[in-house]
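Q: What structure does this chain adopt?
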Amino acid sequence: MSAEAADPGAPLRRRSRPRIDLRRLGRVALRGPVSRDRLPAAIGHVAEAHRAHHPDADLSILRRAYVLAESSHRGQMRKSGEPYITHPLAVTLILAELGAETTTLTASLLHDTVEDTEVTLDQVREQFGDEVCYLVDGVTKLEKVDYGAAAEPETFRKMLVATGNDVRVMSIKLADRLHNMRTLGVMRPEKQARIAKVTRDVLIPLAERLGVQALKTELEDLVFAILHPEEYEETRALIAAADRDAPLEAIADNVRHTLREAGISAEVLIRPRHFVSVHRVRRKRGELRGTDFGRLLVLVGEDADCYAVLGELHTCFTPVVSEFKDFIAAPKFNLYQSLHTAVVGPAGAVAEVLIRTHRMHKVAEAGVVALGNPYAHDPASAPAEPSDERADPTRPGWLSRLLDWQESATDPDTFWTTLRDDLAQDREITVFRTDGGTLGLPAGATCVDAAYAQYGDRAHAAIGARVNGRLATLSTVLGDGDTVQLLLAQDAASGPSPDWLDHARTPAARIAITGWLTDHPEQAKPDPETVDAAGSGRPGPGRPEPAAAQDGGPGVFAPPRTRSGPRARGVVVEGPDAPVRLAGCCTPVPPDELTGFVVRGGAVTVHRRECPAVAAMREIGRAPVAARWEETGGGESDAGCRVTLVAESFGRPRLLADLTEAIATAEAAIVSATVEPPSEQRVRHTYTLQLPDAAGLPALMRAMRDVAGVYDVSRAQHPAPTG
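A:
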């Protein structure tokens, strides 16, 4: 890789400090220790950058850390030919420029001592304390001699677990990888590609999640140069040939003038896009415009000023409404806050504008690094709600979820593959629980994922959900800001269906479901002859076994029905003496209001008045026949009544058995029943029942609704299946 490719961001770094000459620093480092009362010249740049963010910082600990690092690494050389001490110096300088506090810088100077020298963790702890020792241990690689091919994934697992207790571990690792990527040109091409792919798949997503955009963007460009050299060169040539600032400068001048006229104090800058960003815009739009090479950045003092700037821009310029996003009112999960908009400038040029406070800008660039020591908080303050993605930056929700599922991924290959898949989901949503808590989930997550995020293994008993107050299946995809209430079965033996894996997006859900199905192979591959259409399991002892389906219908059992429906008793109709039958589509029972119609053959079919068939008969010109129950009520009630009920439910094991038990307990006889194939985990059961007394119908329907998983029971309003 060429020197230029090793630093693709160089043309865009005009406003930052010049790149440090590491070879010169290496020569300075080799001069040996200096007197106790002055700082080694080799870390003068680190001290300068550190004091810019922390004017009162005590630099004595940095001096001691440098002396130990320089003496322990003395004689070691990097593949680039530089003294090895230049690497921890460069890593520390990267973090110092981002605003890291003294403890992080101390650990970064020492981050390779335990791994590559004779220094031990006990020595680091003795000289620099537990915090520094923990950070150094967190970034120390595991030995290949002990772990073999599993060394890399297990090293990342160890590092992530350490990050769960202290996010500064990952800050040091990201800076370490950035400097290694800057100097990767001395490696063999195949090794460059391997390291670049791991950087792309694991470390860049981690930098995004921790909000360290300054590191993320440069890592992206370095990976782009290695893995896509031709596209990188095309993009580099486009940027070099473009007059990037001129189109944006005219709009920036107009914005400055507008804000001065409004009395708003603001700094308006042109922020060049990095290489990968330009490449993405080019792929999206085809031909690039002059304003596509950068964006305007407006920095103000207070949050309210951000909205004041937005109001002036949308008043004095034509806004592109579709480009507006408010990440101040709703910050991203990685702490990012800003207002995004786009306005039309002179000659129709469209400029994207970012509006934020100076504090927001610092956090946008450095993420968790900008927080200083996030653990130095007031012990009297109340702890943050652990499920809140934005309340506790020291343990963000995505990291908690990652640490939870990694415990179940005992195999290194499974962990490594799942980690990459998890980090590939680059956008997160927040959903609200009905108890007031929140769940952070990747975009595209479903109720299955929410169930396992909230309940862990208890989610095996999930049967459905309410999303924004409405019943929903477990496959329902959740949106940012949705409110979700998970519904669990009371049966502790309930388990997930294999098709849940089709709807699970989070590793925690997939690992838990796969583990349960592995432990219960009889559920993973159900026997179609003994499982109802909902996957509900075998009927319990003493319950009817399903018989072969009649007329091709699914899951029909019990005695066949007559196609003409039951003969009506206790029903009086006006008109000539004719056979009277109760309609099978709505199966009326006392005290339903009735309407009859003469059908082919001269018989009168009696319906409930609200039956949809009544309206259909009227539309085709059929004259209704008045019908009513006999006033004595003796006939039908004494002989019992027949009714068709439809139960809407979520599929779960033993559902059919529990429903038939509820029906039997109500002393109703099942004349026939069908269970339709599940659709999106919803199941429809249709029962034709013989009751000893119509007065028992409300109690029967309540008993069926009380069965776990059943969310509605109603009288049939459509033609019942016939035998």
